[in-house]
Amino acid sequence: MQKNSLMTTRDTIIQVADHLIRDKGFNAFSFKDISIAIGIKTASIHYHFPTKTDLGIATIKGHIERLEALKAELENKSPLTKLEGFFSIYSAVKSENKVCIVGSLATDLHTVEEGIQKELKVLAEKILEWVTEILEEGKAKNAFAFQVAPRTKALLIITNMLAIVQLSRLTKADDFTLLKETIIQELKPKTE
How many other CB atoms are found less than 10 A from the CB of residue 135? Predict the structure, then answer.
């Protein structure tokens, strides 16, 4: 794991934890793994994060901050550009050959402490709200056409993206791109 010279030790610990969560799962790594990756003592990690739960919460909060920043960056863009921005999250995950943080931590949901469960639910709700808003706006502007409720369509899109990141590791690599393109094509209004 490369350490960016502008990153603090705390930021680097979070970055490595994020990598380990999305690569191995939350329960499969320890502070020792992080100390080896960064080259610091575990006591230094405990200084910043007294518990692994504190580190998990900080990692999820980092994803929430990046999601909010992406949402703000795309605020005045078209619904299609916003949707492509949402897809870019999963494209980045795919390019790293990892799974997304929601998919990884949802698997561990019943084995992590309540603080992580709560923060993960906040992240999942923010993703769902954003995609729902994108779809509502797209439908109102006649950029998208779909028959189900916007929230239901958002759930379909999100679950497809969560699943294809993992499934395309086992199937054809281009299945990921194919699914993204199919989602977009199915949203476009049909011309008669």
Answer: 25
DSSP annotation string for 122-187 = HHHHHHHHHHHHHHHHHHHTTS---SS-HHHHHHHHHHHHHHHHHHTTTS-TTHHHHHHHHHHHHH
Query: d(Cα 20, Cα 34) in Å, to the nearest integer?
Result: 8
- Give the chain's domain count: 1
Neighbouring CB atoms inside 10 A of 80's CB total 16
pLDDT digit string, tens, across residues 86-108: 999 999 999 988 889 999 999 88
Does a structural domain hold residue 138?
yes
22: CB partners within 8 A, 6+ apart? 93, 96, 98, 99, 100, 101, 104
Distances (CA, A) of 21 to 61, 71, 102, 124: 14, 24, 10, 16
Domain of 164, in residue numbers: 9-187
Query: Residue 75: which H helix or E strand, with range?
Result: none
Whole-angstrom distance, CA of residue 62 vs CA of residue 57:
9
The answer to whether residue 86 sits within a structural domain is yes
CATH number of the domain that 24 lies in? 1.10.357.10
Secondary structure (3-state) at 31: helix
Residue type, 118: K
Residue 192 lies in a domain: no
Q: Is 65 within the bounds of a domain?
A: yes
Q: What is the pLDDT of residues 107-129, one digit of tens each?
A: 889 999 999 999 999 999 999 99
